[in-house]
Amino acid sequence: DIVMTQSPESLAVSLGERATINCKSSQSVLYSSNSKSYLIWYQQKPGQPPKMLINWASTRESGVPDRFSGSGSGTDFTLTISSLQAEDVALYFCQQYYDIPYTFGQGTKVEIK
Amino acid sequence: EVQLVQSGAEVKKPGESLKISCKSSGYSFTNYWIGWVRQMPGKGLEWMGLIYPGDSDTRYSPSFQGQVTISVDKSISTAYLQWSSLRASDSAMYYCTRQDLRAWGQGTLVTVSS
């Protein structure tokens, strides 16, 4: 299985400040045939299913605020919230879908400082 | 609009069997894999497996192989997750999701307690 290691476990950031979450895969999730990394970032709020924010490591989903951005390729990835808003308090997960079984990072809890 | 609607919460005793469902609408059911994900209370997400409704090709995560069965009924665009003998450790929220991982069911809470 591809192991996804996410850090930190929790993060407290002041409103308007930057939040950065890291995700590392135990092997590359980059398909050479299309140069895409099969890596998703999700946001999960209490009582709700996960919501896709970023696909292909860096492509923001329609309707997702542009303060959310993803970067990285291969094995190392980052989700950045450029200016934290109150509504961004949530759990954030990375997931690889390069190989079955698809696997998730452990999650990062983002709170307001 | 793509929708995945899951069956309601269940409370079961250890040793009992259970089958929960995920009904799809708004797209061609047989053309997209459906996956199941477990989330234990206060914990992260675990990928259980997925099924292709077109031919019932099923892939399980090694962690869940032999522990659960994933199936579909194409005639009613519904996927299922079932247990033959529940344990307390199966208590969790279970989500279904479509192949593209954008559409998710609302979740089914399973509680197993004596």
Features:
heterodimer; A: 113 residues; mainly beta; seven-stranded mixed β-sheet; 51% strand; globular; B: 114 residues; six-stranded mixed β-sheet; four-stranded antiparallel β-sheet; 10 strands; 49% strand
What does this structure look like?
The complex is a heterodimer of chains A (113) and B (114). Chain A is mostly beta strands. Helices cover 0% and strands 51% of the residues of chain A. Chain A has strands at residues 4-7, 10-13, 19-25, 30-31, 36-37, 39-44, 51-55, 59-60, 68-73, 76-81, 90-96, 103-104, 108-112. In chain A, strands 2, 6, 7, 8, 11, 12 and 13 form a seven-stranded mixed β-sheet that branches. The radius of gyration of chain A is 13 Å and the shape is globular. By secondary structure, chain B is an all-beta fold. In chain B, 0% of the residues lie in helices and 49% in strands. Chain B has no helices and ten strands. A six-stranded mixed β-sheet of chain B has the order 2-10-9-4-5-6, with no helix packed on it. In chain B, strands 1-3-8-7 form a four-stranded antiparallel β-sheet, with no helix packed on it. Chain B is globular. Classes of the chains: A mainly beta (113), B mainly beta (114). Chain A binds chain B through residues 1, 40, 49-52, 55, 61, 93, 95, 97, 100-107, and chain B through 35, 44-47, 49-50, 59-63, 95, 97, 101-102, 104-107.
